[in-house]
Write a structure and sequence with these properties.
The protein has a domain at 28-156 and 199-249: Decaprenyl diphosphate synthase-like (Undecaprenyl pyrophosphate synthetase, 3-Layer(aba) Sandwich). A 6-stranded parallel sheet has the order 3-4-2-1-5-6, sandwiched between helices. It has helices spanning 2-5, 12-19, 38-44, 49-70, 89-112, 128-141, 157-173, 184-188, 236-247; strands at residues 30-34, 74-81, 116-120, 148-155, 201-204, 223-226. By secondary structure, it is an alpha/beta fold. 43% of the residues lie in helices and 13% in strands. It starts with a helix and ends in a 15-residue tail after the last helix. The structure holds farnesyl diphosphate. The site of farnesyl diphosphate has 19 residues, from helix 3, helix 4 and helix 5.
Length: 262
């Protein structure tokens, strides 16, 4: 797993601290976003697709600042999926340059805002310069205690689950893990999100209504918000609308609320 590959042991205490960190119960602690529609945004303007990705990067900055201001604890952004390698080589190269560009221009502000950068996904398949940019940002911001800006890069939920299964089977085989100790809670500890709370709110932009192999385990009880707005056009008002929508939902986790019993 990414955490283990970087030699960072999953910090259970941090996980528990996060689970209790809900200052304003109306603001989702963890927002996950499938940032979609960059290509269509560019096409509408007769621009190359990569221009849409560049504009999408600016939206990432805007939404990070706003989420931080609202007191969101974790913002997970689906920046590159395990399937995105199928795109044209030039587009993939452009996308692989974005973390470097983003962090080069934004790292001082991330430090000022006390934001910590993290990543989920298999970093080993990323080009060296992309790995280096992400690793440097993670190292430099690791003492920051505010918002966690979590990039999903070369991330696929099925890939994550297969890795978790293999790890668990290996530990069972080696006698380090007992079958009877495998529970929903313990499986979560083998995922790349082990040190994070589950998302409260998932947003997908651009009118597509599917999960595209994103956090399938972690989204079991998450509220979904789909919008037709293309990612480069997504702004503070759009985020507020999604949060307002979330506030009006009645999260029951499969049970009933007090007033509904009887
Ligand atoms: C999907 O839109 C978007 C992506 C595959 C890339 C998302 C990346 C960013 C928004 C920038 C990330 C920034 C950093 C700092 C890593 P699409 O290209 O599939 O759009 P389309 O469906 O309209 O073609």
């Amino acid at each position: 797993m990414f955490n283990r590959l970087f030699g960072k042991k999953v910090n259970k205490k941090r996980n528990d601290e996060h689970k209790g960190l809900v200052e304003d119960e109306h603001v989702p602690s963890h927002i996950a976003i499938i940032m979609d529609g960059n290509g269509r945004w560019a096409k509408k303007r007769a621009m190359p697709r990569v221009k849409g990705h560049h504009e999408g990067m600016n939206t990432v900055k805007k939404i990070t600042r706003h989420a931080n201001k609202l007191g969101v604890k974790v913002l997970t952004l689906y920046a590159f999926s395990t399937e995105n390698w199928k795109r044209p080589k030039t587009e993939v190269e452009f996308l692989m340059n974005l973390p470097g560009q983003f962090l080069h221009s934004f790292l001082p502000e991330l430090m000022e805002l006390n934001i910590r950068v993290q990543m989920i996904g298999d970093h080993t398949q990323l080009p060296n310069h992309t790995q280096k940019a992400l690793h440097t940002a993670m190292e430099q911001t690791k003492q920051n205690t505010g918002l966690i800006l979590n990039f999903a890069m070369n991330y696929g939920s099925r890939d994550e689950m297969v890795r978790a299964m293999k790890q668990m089977i290996q530990e069972v085989t080696e006698g380090k893990l007992r079958m009877e100790d495998i529970t929903e809670e313990s499986v979560s500890d083998y995922l790349m999100t082990a040190d994070l709370p589950e998302p409260d709110l998932l947003i997908r932009t651009s009118g597509e209504v599917r999960l595209s192999n994103f956090m399938l385990w972690q989204l079991a009880y998450t509220e979904f918000w789909f919008t037709d707005v293309l990612w480069p056009d997504f702004d503070e008002v759009c985020l507020q609308q999604a949060i307002d929508g979330y506030k009006n939902r009645n999260r029951r986790y499969g049970g009933l609320k007090g007033e509904e019993v009887n």
